[in-house]
Amino acid sequence: MTDPLADMLARLRNAILVHKPKTEVPYSSLKFEVAKILEQEGYLSGFSKSRLGNNEILELELKYVDGKSVITGIELVSKAGQRIYAKAGTLPEVLGGLGTLIVSTSQGLMTGKEARRKNLGGEVLIKIW
Asked: What pTM was computed for the model?
C-alpha cells in the first residue's frame, strides 16, 4: 500500500455508498488522529482500536441522518507524488466554511479553522464536506 491515508478515504467512500454502519481500516497513529478529528467534527459517530489476529485495526462507525450519510464528499488533497503545503493565511476553505479541512502542522493534526486561529500552516491533507 503506497498511500495508507488514500486507502482509508477509499474505504470510507465505499462503505458510505453501500450504507454500511461501520468500516475497518488497518491501524496507524495518523489514521487514529484523522478519525479523532472526524468524530469531533460530527462526521463519524465513533471509532475504536482493536486487534484482529496479529494486526491492529481501526473501526470507524459511520454517521447517518434520515438514511443519508453525514459525509457527502471526502477528498485527499496532498498525495504521495505531490504534497500540498499552505501558510496559515492561505489555508483554503471547504465549501465556504461549511466543510472541514484537515491539516498536518508542527503541533499535530488539526482542522483548518484551528490552524488559522493558532496562526499555523502545514501540509493540507483532507477536505471533507
From this structure: 0.91
